[in-house]
């Protein structure tokens, strides 16, 4: 199924309405996984034409996605990655962990962006960042699509490295997301140090349910950042 290529429309709008000179696209991967970090990429692309085939990373075949990520790292003006670990996710909750990872990525850029295009409906960044949220921004915005591909390939490679330590879990194939192999390994072996222990999958594993950690409530997350 063909997809419309992403454009710089939102970036041009931000430049015109806010005076922003440096605009970063931000996207995350790993939000729904049972294991591994949540990873955020911030990418600055300017207004140049992107490499052919750029779109949401989930719509690109794995081999092509890896090739495209390599091309993008040389094509973007700048990019940086930020992570929040499973422990940080458990302690802070996902929204605060996403913000932590995104701030780490944004602060890793050589120049602080004047504005940020954030994929999705929810602004998990907030002040002092100037944010424009865009639903399906990873398909429609060049900078967000670039961030999507780079983040996905980087995190998949990280999870593949963890597979060497924990072969039974199939991290090289499922990237820490739910799968029959992953669930079977959890039932037999229990969570690894890379698992999120506040996730509900532990409710279905009586042998390991005692390891579950309570998720922080909204009141506990207020004032974290």
TrEMBL record:
Q: What's its EC?
A: 3.1.26.4
Q: What class of enzyme is it?
A: hydrolase
- Catalysed reactions, as listed in the record: Endonucleolytic cleavage to 5'-phosphomonoester
What CDD domains does its record include?
RNase_HII_bacteria_HII_like
Where along the chain is a divalent metal cation bound?
Answer: 27-28, 119
Respond yes or no to whether keyword tRNA-binding is given for this record: no
Recall the GO molecular function terms of this protein's record: RNA-DNA hybrid ribonuclease activity
Q: Which UniProt keywords apply?
A: Cytoplasm, Endonuclease, Hydrolase, Manganese, Metal-binding, Nuclease
The note on the cofactor says: Manganese or magnesium. Binds 1 divalent metal ion per monomer in the absence of substrate. May bind a second metal ion after substrate binding.
Record function comment: Endonuclease that specifically degrades the RNA of RNA-DNA hybrids.
In its UniProt entry, what is this protein called?
Ribonuclease HII
Q: Which organism is it from?
A: Streptomyces desertarenae
